[in-house]
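Question (not urgent): is this output format expected?
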Amino acid sequence: MDTAYVTLSRQSGLMNEMRLVANNIANANTTGYRQQGLVFSEFVRDLPGHPSLSLSRAQVRNTLLQQGVLTETGGSFDFAIEGDGFFMIETPAGNRLTRAGSFSPSAEGDLLTMDGYRVLDSNGAPVFVPPDAATIDVGSDGTLSANGQLLGQIGVYNVANPENLVREGKTHFRPTGQIDPVDEPIVLHRFLEGSNVNAIGQVTRMIEVQRAYELGQSFLEAEDERVRGALKALMR
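Got this back:
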């Protein structure tokens, strides 16, 4: 039974990883998406009447923050960050960070994400774009100008410890530690950053996880047959 406990703990972890890998593949073309991974760890558990068991646990998720491919779109309100940093947006649940820079102006002049959340500037205030602006110019540091008049600067923020980022949804992160504006950000206008998912690598990993899970399942079935056979022998 001890081996069954160990195998079941491993199967649970593999199932969790399979879900993450499948989600990564599904978002391989999602703007600003960050690939997720799973960290396996070992822990020892005492069971009544049994010696201590060394079990595996796979509940800690990590996020690959490596930059995705930057693609020129020509969109007047498409932005991408080159290097480190995140855009900050205002949501009903509080401010969140994102690398997805596909924005659009509202009728009131607020710069909004595709979800309708306001984009914030380097001071944490909403970015304003005049609805009647004939032209929008963007500096390499994210400064916005309309009709030759300076409007402000799109905020780019860094987190002191990336491990303090909590993923919410596909492309939003909740910072739980210190965040600060980037001193010299590089913002590309009319560009978007794609997902950083390594699709081929993730498909390969999915096959590996599936084979490992099937191997574990075969072992559990064989163990079940062994236990059944032992019980039948004892009952004779």
